[in-house]
Amino acid sequence: MPNDTAIREATTVVVIGAGPAGLTLANLLRLAGVGCVVLERHSRAHVESRQRAGVLDYHGACVFEEWGLAGEILAGMPGDGSLEIRVDGEPRLLDVAALSGGRTGALIPQQILIGRLLNAHQKAGADVRFAADGVALHDIAGPEPKVTYRDSDGALHEITCAYIAGCDGGHGASRAAVPADALTTYSYDHGIGWFTILADVPPPRHPLMAISSHGFAAHFARGPKASRFYLQCDPGADPAHWGEERLWTQLRLRLGDDDLPAATITDKTVVDMRSFVADPMRHGRLFLAGDAAHIITPMGGKGMNLAIADADVLARALRAAVHDHDDTGLQAYSETCLKRVWNNQEYSRWLTEMTHEAGDESLAGPFRHRLARARLERLFTSEAAARALVDLMAGG
Ligand code: RFL
């Protein structure tokens, strides 16, 4: 622990990280009457401008519904009633709303969700501290853990608490605080790269995945005037090799859309198509949630949704522990969440395999290419197969 004099404070839960996991948890704890302090490394402006995911699944929407937050968080956000899978330029539509019996979610850009969660929380006078530097966890296995950090004036704070929620993403301080021999970790490299851009292009009519011999591409809404595009590329590709002309030419080719306009690109990244799971998601009084515990590829759009689902399970368990001295929810936390995590890892991998191997034959060879085509075709010829897909899309 740092040895200069610290400002000493106490709360019930310290939540580390103000992403989807941390801010959902903080709101739910507030509604559950459990005190918490949120510590975020970055500024509010930075957190509110980070554009990533854009689909809240049905289960995620239900979480906000059940806690009475849907009005505030989801107002005005369109639903995601259909999915287009464009095969060799031919559009094929899955009526997600009908197939799932209305179990659809909402299209909500991650940064809008974050802004609304922050507003809801701070309006109620809650405690979110930005620019918290050098967050460190202490005594996590003991009865009285502590979290230290420096504020933007350099003052050292030491917060004593009953529980710590590690919601600080894949590179945060929380998971790193768990002794290596107390965690089993599972990593998987999907051997595919995804080049992704954000551009000022109006969103597609429906979320769109395109499969062709030119490689996989996707086009998703990110608000009324913006789109996120994904293009399969070599793993570790250098974005510098994707000049604008190549990019728009490839998108038109893969999406089978000659009229796609070239537009301003606001962000370019190569996303690691990799998966990671840490087991258990708890060590002593530290509970990991969201990307701090598991990373999933963007295929299937589940990263943000798993973060929200973990927050819901943890908030309910902490409410029971704090108000009723009932620890059963906390004991079951890791197992409950990991079941959902593995189910979604399988979904993401299944969808990745089908949509990529059905496209470029050289990726996995001609035999697997034809298997993937058969799997894809089944979605449009077997209602049971289509229902299985939309059931996974709904989450839960
Ligand atoms: P986040 O969102 O990373 O938030 C963690 C927060 O913790 C802060 N932090 C710290 N704070 C204090 N001290 C420290 N030492 C700290 N270290 C970190 C960070 O600043 C941050 O504010 O994790 P969380 O809450 O678990 O949420 C996870 C989701 O953000 C993530 O799974 C998704 O964004 C993944 N993802 C997508 N998910 C989807 O569901 N659908 C998508 O379409 C989708 N597209 C994407 C994505 C992720 C992408 N990235 C990360 C490359 C597209 C992209 C490009």
From TrEMBL:
Molecular-function GO term, any one: FAD binding
Annotated FAD-binding domain residues: 11-344
The entry's keywords: FAD, Flavoprotein, Monooxygenase, Oxidoreductase
Keyword Oxidoreductase recorded: yes
Keyword Oxidoreductase: yes
Name of the featured protein: 4-hydroxybenzoate 3-monooxygenase
Source organism (scientific name): Spongiactinospora gelatinilytica
